[in-house]
Design a protein that fits this description.
Elements: H1 16-32, H2 40-55, E1 61-66, E2 82-83, E3 90-99, H3 101-105, E4 112-119, E5 131-137, H4 151-161, E6 170-174, H5 180-189, E7 192-196, H6 201-207, E8 216-222, H7 223-236, E9 239-245, H8 249-257, E10 266-267, H9 268-271, E11 278-283, E12 294-296, E13 299-308, E14 313-321
Parallel strand pairs: 1-3, 6-7, 6-8
Antiparallel strand pairs: 1-2, 3-4, 4-11, 5-8, 5-9, 9-10, 11-13, 12-13, 13-14
Length: about 325
């Protein structure tokens, strides 16, 4: 009889990145059933309903730091909720079951389902700060780049670093009235603009990924999305600069009373300081980064990213799900 014992796994978390993809796949599949229905709330609920039970099967002891809101507002994936099977060390969890609920409801591009995971206590909690100013650029272009510099100066530095003209650069910006002045300045400098209809995590990833046609992300967006983008950048590389902003006096008081600074410039590692960060995303609708969920005869196809900072591994995963057998498609 062979009594040889197997040595313990030296890296018990190595499968976590792939396990997280199962959760984003489930959310993407379920919410995409309501593609084009015009009901963003139904899209979000479908994604949450599918993601939460799958996360419950993942081998981890997770605590939601960035989720659907407070417990009295969100029955699942609320801030502070424990997810996973409860075994092992603790992890901070950031989830956005659908980054782009309105995009899905209107059948528009670039909606994705996202999860970020980092060691417990290493993920920035936004508290009452809903929005932040952001700048994201690839690491090799980051020298001398500052958040508060005029956008024309930033564009000229990037152009010089890439041996191009400003007119050959493309800037990703959320399509919002608050960015009218920023857009005017970008155009005056001569650069092109890639407008993001909703959700800027995809834009941040594109800004640091070769071949996407985006050189820079700038503008004001959600603070939770900033933390999720930082999770991706810890795996991909790149520079994130952010600064919390208050929409009114009441919110400013809440931010300051909670101990946050409106002056501090936050970097990638300020937002996610852990050295073992995981990130997973699955396309809901077709976009420049990922394809959307496709329903075909007897199969459902998903397109996902799986990343880990410690190894630097980035996987592009196309999965084919059997709707009769897969546990991810029956919610």
């Amino acid at each position: 009889m062979n009594t040889t014992t197997q040595p313990p796994d030296p890296d018990p978390q190595r499968n976590l990145a792939l396990e997280l993809v199962r959760a984003t796949e489930a959310a993407a599949i379920n919410c995409s059933r309501y593609l084009g229905y015009g009901d963003a709330n139904r899209v979000d609920a479908a994604a949450v309903d599918a993601m939460r039970p799958v996360l419950g099967t993942v081998h981890m002891n997770g605590i939601v730091v960035i989720g659907e809101g407070e417990k009295d507002e969100a029955p699942m994936l609320y801030n502070g909720e424990r997810v996973g099977d409860g075994v092992g060390e603790e992890w901070d969890i950031a989830v956005d079951p659908v980054d782009g609920t309105a995009l899905t409801a209107k059948s528009l591009p670039d909606a994705v389902s996202i999860i970020g995971v980092a060691p417990r206590g290493t993920m920035y909690s936004p508290g009452p700060a809903v929005y932040m100013r952001k700048l994201v650029v690839a690491e090799h272009l980051a020298t001398g780049i500052e958040l508060n510099a005029p956008i024309a100066d930033t564009l000229h530095k990037i152009a010089a670093a890439t041996d191009r003209t400003v007119s050959e650069l493309t800037v990703a910006v959320l399509d919002r009235p608050r960015h009218d002045q920023l857009v005017a300045e970008i155009r005056a400098a001569g650069a092109r603009i890639r407008f993001l209809l909703d959700g800027d995590v995809v834009g941040a990833i594109m800004a640091v990924t070769p071949g996407t046609g985006v050189d820079l992300l700038v503008g004001t967006g959600g603070t939770p999305e900033g933390v999720l983008a930082a999770c991706a950048l810890r795996c991909l590389g790149g520079k994130f600069l952010g600064q919390l902003i208050a929409r009114d006096d009441e919110e400013e008081r809440a931010i300051l009373n909670a101990g946050y600074s409106l002056e501090r410039i936050l970097t990638t590692t300020d937002l996610v300081s852990g050295d073992n960060v995981f990130f997973a995303a699955t396309g809901v609708t077709d976009g420049s980064l990922l394809k959307g969920v496709r329903f075909e005869s007897h199969r459902i196809i998903t397109d996902s990213l799986s990343m880990r900072s410690r190894s630097g591994t980035v996987r592009r995963i196309e999965s084919r799900h059997d709707p009769e057998r897969s546990t991810l498609v029956n919610f």
